[in-house]
Design a protein that fits this description.
alpha+beta
Length: 100
């Protein structure tokens, strides 16, 4: 699942349908522009609290991803704790992977 998730998110980054990082994810959640959030498995309690609470208020599903280091490496970046998905189809794919 992890490899497929990282490939999907990588496509989203290239298509500019993904926001990388906690600050950007929270900003887009406030705007109502996200359809899914991926949180690193080892995200800090503060990050989890801030992002999950806001996502729940906006009724945006939250998916647990791999750890921050692996998540960032899969996108060619430093460790990443949160990723926001703004494309509906991509969000469906990410959610589907987490359920399957």
């Amino acid at each position: 699942m992890t490899d497929r998730l990282l490939r999907l998110l990588g496509l989203g980054v290239r298509a500019r349908n993904v926001v990388v990082g906690v600050t950007g994810t929270r900003t887009e959640l406030h705007r109502g522009a996200l359809h899914c959030v991926v949180l690193a498995a080892d995200a800090s309690p503060r990050t989890r609290d801030k992002v999950e609470r806001l996502a729940a208020a906006r009724r945006v599903p939250v998916v647990r991803g791999p750890d921050a280091k692996e998540l960032g490496a899969g996108l060619g970046r430093p460790p990443v704790q949160a990723i926001g998905v703004s494309d509906v189809s991509l969000a469906r794919g990410v959610i589907g992977l987490s359920e399957g």
